[in-house]
Write a structure and sequence with these properties.
This protein has helices at about 15-20, 25-30, 45-50, 70-75, 110-115, 120-130, 130-135, 140-155, 165-170, 185-200, 205-210, 225-230, 250-265, 270-275, 280-285; strands at about 5-10, 30-35, 50-55, 80-85, 95-100, 105, 175-180, 180-185, 240-245, 245-250. With about 280 residues, the chain is of the alpha/beta class. A four-stranded parallel β-sheet has the order 2-1-3-4. The protein has a two-stranded antiparallel sheet with strand order 5-6. Helix 4 (about 70-75) links the parallel strand 3 and strand 4 (about 80-85).
Length: about 280
Amino acid sequence: MARALCLLHANCQGDALRPLLENSPAFARRFHIRQYVNYTRQGIDPADIGQCALFLYQKLAPKWGDISSGELLQRLPASCQTLEIPNLFFKGYWPFWMRSESINFADSLLENLLERGLAPEQVMALYLRGDPALLGSPADLAACAEDSLAREEEKEAASPVRCAPLLRRFWQEEQLFITVNHPGRKLVCHVADSVLRLLGLGGLPDSVRAAYRHPLEDFWLPIHPAVGKALNLPFAAARRRYPIYQVHLTHRQYVSCYLACRGHNVPDLLTFLQNLSPRSLEARI
């Protein structure tokens, strides 16, 4: 029997979810997935819209135009089953993260220190010292995490798949996010399990969960050790080495790479890090 078409309309989190669904036998017997990337504004083939039997989507506001969720939902066949999936984001581990065109994963404190005209060595020393006068008090850092948790709860208030309770329960015990917008395996598996159960397909098999290899685990954004200490995060010690493409870097080494990019006006930090090797790391840091 031919399998029905499932359209997956999501950001990079769809890359993490897709293999869990495709490797779940109950899902794979019924559906084959065609994935469309939402944040690049990739258009969806009208033929796929017409044949879609299951539409898994992250909600996009009307400002996204013809790929907004409201527009797409109206164009689907009446028989199509639709299910909203989360678009997860958590700033609690990285309270200084900010959006910027100057560099990937911009750090507001590092940028502030650089704007003062300090030398990279001074910036590094001040930043790594972890002085509450610069980083904020433990209460300030906890408030940032709480704001991010509350935002996720608000986003999920009317959603069928809910991750916020899991995030609130475990975020301090284990690292649940790889970067601010890349949830780790526990959350991705929870989303997959929830989707399968909502579809009446019995949940995520233990064998699939155990064999899962997260496709986004090649870059873990390091956590400031002072943030880890203030928020009681056992996984954020200064000595921890984070997987970053071909190398494993401490937070200090990562900050050194960040400052090297800023010193040479290189906005593409990720490409810089991808080109690091153990030998080049010794030469640069």
